[in-house]
């Protein structure tokens, strides 16, 4: 495993397991399968509707809490200072945990960004109380981050954004890095079929005796992004974890990055 360090010295595994759209009935097998494959970083969110099932799965999995890295996110309907604190406590209850490793604002409030700034104040309170080891944001633009910088006591440590070879996010990624923010990429293989059939990626995969998905995940990590692919298939879960025995060279990284179309595949 490779790790990325936040501005406060906390380390995060660069490869995690995503829990988006995992049905509650499938959660126990998915969590145990990921643990068996070697995952210890799990990306969750209240809006996914499965945090209680995930908490129960971890309780039964016989894994030490300190060996896990758990992320969750406050949803749009829970923004605001008091509502964020309440939502956080609900997430802790659901996950059956007494702290989180990382808590994020899931989306900025485009219509009332002052509400999002109040949410950030609540995030800072949770951090100061030691209930979360790191705090950050998701889907924030450069301008929105600057508004947070102007009022915050603690700068966001993470920006989680859509990122894959068809949406490389070079400018925003560099801005984050320049400001001490760790980049995380969701939808890292862009829902598979479009990107995994790409000729450039498959040629690189053939050279390394790896799959297209493994090459794309390696590209993320080699370019400094934390990622958390999701799959309900045991073989794919294991395959996604098997990316630490090779690296891409500079030309291969450039070739994949050159596929950028600034294309949203998530909405």
TrEMBL record:
Substrate binds at residue 106. The record marks 73 as: Lowers pKa of active site Tyr. InterPro entries: AKR, Aldo/ket_reductase_CS, NAD(P)_OxRdtase_dom_sf, NADP_OxRdtase_dom. Keywords: NADP, Oxidoreductase. Residues 15-260 form the NADP-dependent oxidoreductase domain. It holds the Pfam family Aldo_ket_red. The active site is at 48 (proton donor). One of its GO terms (molecular function) is oxidoreductase activity, acting on the CH-OH group of donors, NAD or NADP as acceptor. Belongs to the aldo/keto reductase family. This is Aldo/keto reductase.
């Amino acid at each position: 495993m490779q790790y990325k360090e936040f501005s406060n010295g906390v380390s995060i595994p660069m490869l995690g397991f995503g829990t988006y759209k995992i049905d509650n009935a499938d959660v126990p097998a998915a969590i145990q399968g990921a643990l068996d494959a070697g995952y210890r970083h799990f990306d969750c969110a209240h809006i996914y509707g499965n945090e209680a099932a995930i908490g129960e799965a971890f309780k039964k999995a016989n894994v030490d809490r300190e060996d896990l890295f758990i992320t969750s996110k406050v949803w749009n309907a829970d923004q605001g200072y008091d509502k964020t604190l309440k939502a956080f406590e609900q997430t802790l209850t659901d996950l059956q945990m007494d702290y989180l490793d990382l808590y994020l604002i899931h989306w900025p409030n485009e219509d009332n960004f002052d509400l999002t700034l109040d949410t950030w104040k609540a995030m800072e309170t949770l951090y100061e109380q030691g209930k979360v080891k790191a705090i950050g944001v998701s889907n924030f633009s450069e301008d929105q981050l600057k508004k947070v910088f102007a009022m915050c006591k603690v700068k966001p440590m993470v920006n989680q954004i859509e990122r894959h070879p068809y949406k490389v996010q070079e400018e925003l990624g560099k801005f984050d890095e320049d400001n001490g923010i760790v980049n995380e990429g969701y939808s890292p293989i862009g829902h598979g079929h479009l990107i995994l059939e790409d000729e450039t990626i498959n040629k690189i995969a053939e050279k390394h005796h790896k799959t297209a998905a493994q090459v794309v995940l390696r590209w993320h990590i080699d370019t400094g992004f934390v990622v958390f692919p999701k799959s309900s298939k045991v073989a794919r879960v294991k395959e996604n974890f098997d990316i630490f025995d090779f690296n891409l060279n500079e030309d291969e990284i450039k070739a994949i990055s050159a596929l950028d179309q600034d294309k949203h595949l998530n909405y």
